[in-house]
Amino acid sequence: MRADRRTVLTGLGALGLGTTLSACSAPEQPEPPRPALDLSALEARHGGRLGVSALDIAFNRSVSWRGQERFAYCSTFKLFLAAAALERVERGEERLDRSIRITRADMISHAPVTGPAVGRGLTVQALCQAMVEVSDNPAANIMIREMGGLNAWRDWLRTLGDTSTTVNRWEPDLNSAMADDPRDTCLPDQTVGNLREVLLDERLTAGHRRLLEDWMLASPTGPNRIKAAAPTGWTVAHKTGTGANGATNDIGLLRPPSGQPVLVAAYFTEAPDATTAQREAVLAQGVREALRALGHG
Hints:
By secondary structure, this protein is α+β, with helices and mostly antiparallel strands. It has helices at 40-46, 77-90, 124-133, 137-147, 150-159, 188-199, 206-218, 226-229, 276-293; strands at 6-10, 49-56, 61-65, 71-72, 99-101, 121-123, 185-186, 235-242, 248-255, 262-269.
């Protein structure tokens, strides 16, 4: 399950997102120097396993460390689940204002929005907002159930061109993050491709892309992860994930004061003895080095 640690990428084609040049294309130009990302020293200092993938939209350049290795995604999946719900709305299969009754049977750990709503209804929009902004677990399970269950959720991911992310369990069981367990895992490189699909491409309408990004911007979770790595003046729209075995994750879209954004997916795991602060510092440093390799910071 663990591929070569270093993967250095240039262009969207490296993430499987490029287009084929026609036979009439201009002569091939010399390839520019590729940015390199080496996080081995950071891992050696702190232990654990770190995966970081970043794509600079402005220059079509990417860097990746362990980008083709599997990491438990934990709650980061909720961003894409919300995107799936928004797409179902666009297709007429769902309504943002539809109310869903919240029951005691729906309750599991971490229910900051759904917990107080037991016995009454929450709209689809409120449930999506809850799972992106504050990572409400029952909200995620309810939305998976409403779209048809785990198989339907997996099938939707496949429509993104994502053939690698695995979907096996519900919240909170999917957060076990055991070493070498392929269940409920993703590849950082693929996650960056998925981020582009739902946040920047025309998969969703502009209004729904903006709504999704607004929820991510409003999230108070993980201020010491990607947010701590962003250069001064940049905005960070993100979704965190945390699990057992030291799993500490964050994915998101970073916008500079002007120009095109950078997409980032970062995962740190297998460091259960480290404190939360230590794990978050490692994750932030990995993202910081990725941004530096792309010429930012």
